[in-house]
Amino acid sequence: MCLPFLSWAGNEDVNIARFSQGNLNGWQSRTFSGVTYYKLVHEDGKTVLRADSSAAASGLYREVNVDLGETPILNWTWKVDRIPAASADERTRTGDDYPARVYVVFSRGLMLWQTYAINYVWSSRLPVGSSWPNAFTSNARMIAVESGSGRAGLWVFERRDVRADYRRLFGEEPGRVDAVAVMTDTDNTGTNATAWYGDIWFSSE
Q1: Rounded to a whole number, what is the distance in angstroms from the first to the last CA of the chain?
Q2: pLDDT, tens only, 24-57
Q3: Phi and psi dihedrals of 29, rounded to 5?
Q4: Per CATH, the architecture of 6-203 is what?
Q5: For the purposes of burial, counting CB atoms within 10 Å of the CB of 4, is it exposed (0-12), middle (13-18) or buried (19 or more)?
Q6: Residue 33: beta bridge partners?
Q7: Is the overall model pTM greater than 0.85, yes or no?
């Protein structure tokens, strides 16, 4: 069943995930290989989304309709317990696993192959700020916003200019944002990972 779109209105923040309110309304699951288990938990004095993955890759996504001309900045908080398979090369199919990722999906037409995505990932070892094509599809780009275990166990606040990232990665202006997803995946390396996701929202400049 297709859930109603979350649309931008006015110049206010666009709330994508209100996990802190115990709210999973509008979120749907998608399984790629095995099941990553997601549930709302009380952690560090607040309600957040916990993800537990064991050699699995499934995510949660929410259909949205966000105008990046008005609210281009994506904000979120997250935490990982550790870095599994730290020696894996995430640029290859056998190493394409991340303890935490938040990704943004853009439609460029009616067909599936016209969908582009930016994946903001907690990398095992690639430098913060680095970017590379997804190992499975040229329509997705990865950006390391965290790397390694230096901040494992800590809540980290992230802020990205999605419009600027899209221009740099794809060399054109972005269309509307059609979906936002979270995923903790360990299927390719056969490892285990736990992550926690806080609220996610778009804001203006």
Answers
A1: 34
A2: 999 999 999 999 999 999 999 999 999 999 999 9
A3: -105, 150
A4: Sandwich (2.60)
A5: exposed
A6: 57
A7: yes
